[in-house]
Design a protein that fits this description.
12 strands; globular; about 10% strand; TIM Barrel; 8-stranded parallel β-sheet; 19 helices; 4-stranded antiparallel β-sheet
Length: about 500
């Protein structure tokens, strides 16, 4: 079945509290997609943001982002008041997320809500605290990761939010007596972090159920790596390439290419794949299983890293002196299939692809990705012709761009005159405006043979790079863009529906 959809993170939704969330605007956006003939809403990882405000540098591979909790819903539960929400600062520009301001205001009101919730629960059934039955069910169902995550976050708070590698040795190396004593003394703080995950799960479940009822499936993203400063590495150091002091020996990144002379130094710890293999890939299976509780379809980021991954010595300042090592290959995905059955997975195979990576994607059976911007630029991929629509296989997902790309409008303006001429020749449009070229490119990917076509919201709105989501290898100005009320108009809705119907994607 041919389908189309929109790429837009939850954080980019409009709303009054500094960042998009699971509130009324999210439900309105689902309605907009359904009425526009779309079948897919692709989002970025729902995990807590980390270094550089990136959802790809999260403190947990399993937890949800507390920023997405709808504060108005907490108000309706009697946990917050309008005055408490009005008293806080949420940023001055509705088109951008101000993460510094958000960090202070969000957690302040969430702690206020938690205190009110505990007060509601005090003395019920003759107990000091008797929490709702669904809370106990949630904590029990998720205890394998939730207990470690909540303890880790409480320890971070106690240590001034420092990276866990800087904690005192008993906590850094998980001395059982020290952890037990800390947990006993910090029950309320640990409970706060569990409460946030409970509220996140309730609210997301409602939103996802509503989307599914409207015929909209959610595509979620799973980063291949986890952050060094995460509950995952702290609680499971043996799963990663760490030394006896739990410091990394090698870190992740990408080698130099046409876009970066020094490569990309991501800094994530690398997996000890031998340990994962010997466990039957248990941690990975649980991670992917958790993702399918959140999403209908999972896009696995940096799929190449499962065939070969780039290892950089820990402490290097650039990615220039790394090397390639062999990953788990198809064995991981066979194990996932055996345990979880057939699942909807997309392989993000962008960039330079070796023959062995191509074989891995083909053997997995997962649809791969095509990005029209790459069809006219060989600096990064070395195989631009693979991205030309006349070469697409049916089993792929096509995009105008991803969260890492320029917006379509700025991309067309920024490429070389030769590349612009190639675009116009391919479209057979030699005189159209920049906007008309963008319209033609959207139509081009929509009418391709690809089963699924996903368009970033910015490209439907013909926005420039002021709305770009992320520029890899940079810090300080990413993950900020937001819609403002009224940007998804009735006219845009009609335009999208016409295209979906015209190209058999409705």
């Amino acid at each position: 079945m041919r389908e189309s959809g929109i790429l837009m993170p939850v954080s980019s939704l409009p709303g009054p509290y500094g960042i998009g969330c699971f509130g009324k605007e999210a439900f309105k956006f689902v309605d907009f997609l359904a009425q526009a003939g779309q079948k897919i809403w692709q989002i970025l990882p729902l995990s807590p943001t980390g270094y550089g405000d990136s959802p790809y540098q999260s403190c947990s591979a399993f937890a949800g982002n507390p920023y997405f909790i709808d504060l108005d819903a907490l108000k309706e539960e009697g946990l917050l008041t309008a005055a408490q929400l009005k008293a806080e600062k949420w940023g001055t520009d509705p088109k951008e997320v101000d993460y510094g301001t958000l960090y202070v205001s969000r957690f302040k009101v969430l702690r206020t809500a938690y205190a009110a919730w505990r007060k509601q629960c005090a003395g019920l059934h003759g107990c000091s605290y008797y929490f709702p039955d669904d809370y106990y069910a949630f904590t029990l169902a998720n205890e394998e990761w939730l207990d470690d995550y909540a303890l880790y976050m409480a320890l971070k708070v106690a240590n001034g939010m420092k990276n866990w590698v800087e904690w005192d040795k008993p906590y850094r190396l998980r001395d059982k007596k020290a952890l037990a004593a800390f947990a006993a003394e910090n029950e309320e703080e640990i409970g706060f972090w569990k409460f946030l995950q409970y509220e996140f799960a309730i609210q997301w479940k409602k939103l996802k159920a509503y989307a599914n009822k409207q015929g909209i499936e959610i595509i979620g993203d799973i980063p291949i790596y986890v952050a060094m400063d995460s509950a995952d590495t702290w609680a499971n150091p043996w799963l990663f390439k760490l030394d006896e002091n739990n410091c990394p020996t090698q870190v992740a990144g990408c080698p130099p290419d046409g876009f970066s002379a020094t490569g990309q130094l991501w800094g994530n710890p690398l997996y000890n794949w031998e340990v994962h293999r010997n466990s039957g890939f248990e941690w990975w299976i649980k991670r992917i299983e958790n993702c399918f509780r959140l999403y209908d379809v999972v896009r696995i980021d940096h799929f190449r890293g499962f065939d070969e991954y780039y290892a950089i010595p820990y402490g290097d300042k650039t990615a220039e002196h790394g090397w390639w090592e062999k990953g788990p290959g198809i064995d991981l995905f066979r194990a996932v299939s055996v345990r979880l059955g057939a699942r909807k997975i997309i392989a993000e195979d962008l960039g330079y692809m070796t023959d062995s990576v191509k074989r891995l994607v083909e053997e997995s059976g997962y649809p791969n990705m095509k990005v029209i911007e790459f069809a006219f630029d060989e600096r990064d991929t070395g195989n631009a012709s693979d991205y030309l629509p006349h070469n697409y296989p049916e089993n792929c997902v096509v995009y105008t761009g991803t969260h890492d790309n320029e917006t379509l409008l700025s991309w067309f303006r920024d490429i070389t005159p030769k590349e612009r001429r190639q675009v116009r020749e391919y479209l057979n449009n030699f005189y159209g405006s920049d906007r008309e070229i963008c319209q033609d490119l959207i139509c081009l990917v929509m009418r391709s043979v690809a089963k699924l076509c996903v368009i970033p919201m910015q490209d439907y709105l013909y926005l420039d790079n002021s709305a770009r989501m992320n520029q890899p290898s940079t810090l300080g100005n990413n993950w900020k863009w937001r819609l403002i009320p009224g940007q998804f108009t009735e006219n845009l809705q009609k335009e999208m529906k016409v295209l979906a119907k015209r190209y058999g994607r409705q």
